[in-house]
Design a protein that fits this description.
By secondary structure, this protein is of the alpha+beta class. The protein has one domain (2-293). The protein contains four helices and 18 strands. It has helices at residues 53-62, 139-144, 204-213, 272-293, and strands at residues 2-10, 13-20, 28-30, 33-34, 46-47, 63-67, 77-83, 90-94, 99-100, 105-114, 124-131, 151-155, 170-175, 182-186, 197-202, 220-229, 236-248, 254-260. β1 and β2 (13-20) form a beta hairpin.
Length: 294
């Protein structure tokens, strides 16, 4: 479900912050999510929200809006991703975006948290791009939402050259045209672009240049942004606090932030200094009261 929406003018761009407390109206859905051992109606292990109660339960086991962990920088909660075994996958996807990848510029920020025991991976940020080339078809592609786009750019913190060793702390990723390395999944057979490219990593500006300079690529629309944990990341227990996605280009600038929260939010935990001052204040009140009584 959606939550509070706050808008503010920042220059010519309208900055919008939306509180997201579940899958649904705020534009966020369960994307390409999978459960090891599950067999769906098509013989795969895909999970589709709303298809049946079993799959809804398996999605909830892997993708949940919760309070904590302490202390997120925005609000009091986060979206929780969990992939117990290698064949599991958990993806939160927004299919409501529409941006021109050939001409627009992008700034992305998100904060993640990881519990120990899940290796070096951390929640990834992905971009689905619909070019003029063929999209995949078939039941599996439809279940994954991949019938809507044919290229996926993937940013993974540990792949970007950083040593991701920070467990039990919030870490902020900042990505723009010249910072942050992405690899590409190419879903089109016989594409004019390279096939799935794990290396070298390219920045968004570098991918944009490659798309623009490739004969045969005449359009490229971003129609999906995603957060999540991919397959072959067993025992991943991680969270994302918020995502900021800013776009500038020929169209009006967009500044969107989604703050992920539990449906029932806990009161904010006071900072230790503030809490200490509160205790001192109560003690002072008590002292004054005793003096007045004496």
């Amino acid at each position: 479900m959606g939550g509070l929406l706050v808008a503010a003018m920042g220059g010519q761009a309208l900055a919008v912050t939306t509180v997201v407390t579940g899958l649904g109206p705020a534009g966020w859905v369960s994307g390409d999510s999978r459960a090891d051992g599950h067999v769906d109606v098509n013989g795969n292990n895909q999970l589709v929200s709303g298809r049946n109660a079993v799959e809804d339960g398996l999605i909830a086991d892997r993708l949940e809006f919760v309070n904590g962990p302490p202390v997120p920088s925005m609000g009091t909660g986060s979206v929780h991703f969990e992939t117990p075994v290698n064949n599991d996958k958990a993806t939160l996807e927004n299919r409501g975006v529409s941006n021109n990848f050939l001409t627009d510029s992008f700034d992305v920020e998100y904060a993640w948290y990881r519990a120990p025991g899940g290796g070096v991976a951390a929640p990834a940020f992905k971009i689905g791009i619909d070019t003029n080339e063929a999209n995949p078809v078939g039941p599996k592609a439809v279940d994954r939402g991949e019938d809507r786009f044919d290229k996926i750019l993937v940013y993974e913190p540990y792949q970007d050259g950083a040593v991701v060793t920070s467990d039990n702390v919030w870490t902020t990723e900042n990505i723009n045209g010249t910072t942050g390395g992405f690899w590409m999944v190419n879903l089109t057979g016989g594409s004019a672009l390279p096939g799935t490219v794990l290396s070298p990593l390219r920045t968004l500006d570098e991918w944009q240049l490659l798309f623009n300079s490739t004969a045969g690529i005449t359009s490229a629309t971003i129609n999906s942004i995603q957060l999540g944990v991919g397959s072959f990341n067993a025992n991943q227990d991680s969270h994302v606090d918020y995502l900021t996605y800013n776009v500038t280009g020929a169209a009006a600038p967009q500044e969107n932030t989604w703050d992920f929260e539990a449906a029932t939010q806990q009161p904010a935990v006071p900072e230790p200094v503030t809490a200490g001052l509160g205790v001192l204040g109560l003690a002072a009140i008590g002292l004054v009261t005793r003096r007045r009584k004496s």
